[in-house]
Design brief:
Length: about 70
């Protein structure tokens, strides 16, 4: 939240345009910031899931390499 303190209205509207391109942005600063925080939390969760999936795939690749090297 500290990041948003001191931001100009145009900066906040720019964030809203990124969140909902092509739509008329809301002008309520609190609503825009709440939407931005919600989007950031969702992206963080997705990044965590992708990281875990990537790690599982790396483990699978290592197992296949070990199995393949036996033959």
């Amino acid at each position: 939240i500290e990041v948003f303190i001191g931001m100009t209205k145009n900066q906040i509207l720019g964030i809203k345009h990124l969140l909902e391109p092509g739509r008329t942005p809301k002008t309520d600063k609190i609503v825009i910031l709440a939407d931005a925080l919600r989007a950031l939390k969702q992206l963080k969760a997705e990044a965590q899931e992708l990281g875990e999936s990537n790690e599982k795939l790396r483990d699978t690749i290592k197992k296949f390499k070990v199995f393949h090297s036996l033959f």
